[in-house]
Amino acid sequence: MREAAVNTDTAGTESGYDLNGGSAGRSGDDPMTGCPGLGPQVGPDEQLIRDYGLMLSASTRLERIVGKEFERHVGITHAMYEVLRRLEGGCTSMSHLAGETILTSGGMTRLIDRMEKAGLVSRYASDTDRRVQKASLTDKGRATLDHANRVHTQTLRRVFAGALDEDQRESLKHILVRLERVGRAELPSLG
């Protein structure tokens, strides 16, 4: 796979932000869209909304890049990869998997159905409660996860680590941990 260099001097201008703190485009353009309009001076509420939108945009783009790499090189979706990682330590219930991902319990069941048909997981009833369905990795699932981890690491080195130096990644990690704590306090389960 060809490594793509990330130009950190211009990478943020596509979304309307100059990574050095200014706004991209002509003076008077909307910093997020580049469209004529609001101009560089906005109030704090608008800036808060734009900052949040920038965070979501960056996250969504990176997730889509990662997802495309999984599909292209491993033949699985990003959601399948997340399930494989969670099953790596042993079996777990469908409800637990759904609570740790963005899928509903019904969505998780459909995903596990596809993964079971692909031979990545096996599903069975709990020994203690037959109503509870559990899943575990198959040998093929473990091999797929190993391959997916290598692809994921290469992708993250290119589009995530390559765009930030070590100090920036450490700062980002502290910020994300703080935001994750706030989010978990408000919404303990994603399901």
Automatic annotation (TrEMBL):
InterPro entries: HTH_MarR-typ, MarR/SlyA-like, WH-like_DNA-bd_sf, WH_DNA-bd_sf. Residues 45-181 form the HTH marR-type domain. Residues 1-35 are annotated as: Disordered. Pfam families: MarR (PF01047). This is MarR family winged helix-turn-helix transcriptional regulator. It comes from Actinocorallia longicatena.
